[in-house]
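Q: I have 217 residues here and want to know how they pack in 3D. Can you give me a structure?
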Amino acid sequence: MNLDLFSLTAVLVGLVLAITIHEFSHALVAYELGDTTAQRMGRLSLNPLVHLDPLGSLMMVITALTGFGIGWGKPTPVSPWNLRPGRRLGMAMVAAGGPFSNFLLAFILSRVLFLVPGLPGPVQVFLASIMFVNLGLTAFNLLPLPMLDGFHILMGIVSSIRNKWAYALTYQLERLEPHGAQLLLILLLLPAVLHFSPLMWLLRPVYNLLAMIIGVG
C-alpha cells in the first residue's frame, strides 16, 4: 500500500485529539454535576496519555492505515448516584458532553478554514482532516446503541418521561445495555456477510446532518 505519511499523521493526530477532548469532557461534566470520581483518578486532564487505551490506540493506527475500524480511549469513570440531576438524567448529560465537545471542535475548525484567508495548503488539509475525524466521532457516538453515548442520552430522555410506555421502554433498554459489546461487534462484522453495512446505513444520515450544520456537507 502506498501510504501518504502526511495524511496518516493528520488522521492519527485527529483521533488522539478527538478522544482526549471527548473523555476530558465526560470527566468535566461529571465533575460539574457533583461526581469527583474521574477527577480523583486523574482523568480531568487534557493529557492524552491518561485517556488512551492500548488496544484502542492500536485500532486508531489500523483505522488510519486502512480507513476502516474504530479507535477508543479508556472509559471515563463515573459514579451515577453522585450526579445531582439523578442517575439517568445525570448520565445523559455526562454522555452528551463527549460528542458535543467533538462537534464544537469540528465547528471551530470549519470556521478557521472558511474565515482565515491565505492558509497554506498543507495546513488546510491537516485542519480539515482533524475536523472530519471529530465530525465522524460525533456522529458515531450519537448513535443510540449500547456502549455509545447516544444510548445514555436516549435512556436519560426516556426515563424522565412519566408515562407507562416510557417505563416499559426504559426497562427494555436496561435489559439490552449489557449486550452492547456483542451488538456492536455484530454490526462491525455484518458487512463481510451481507456486503452491506447496517452501521454505515445508520451513521451516514447523522454524519451528513452534522456536516450540513457546520457548512461542510
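Q: Anything worth noting?
A: Residues 147 and 181 are 7 Å apart (CA to CA). The chain has one domain: 5-213.
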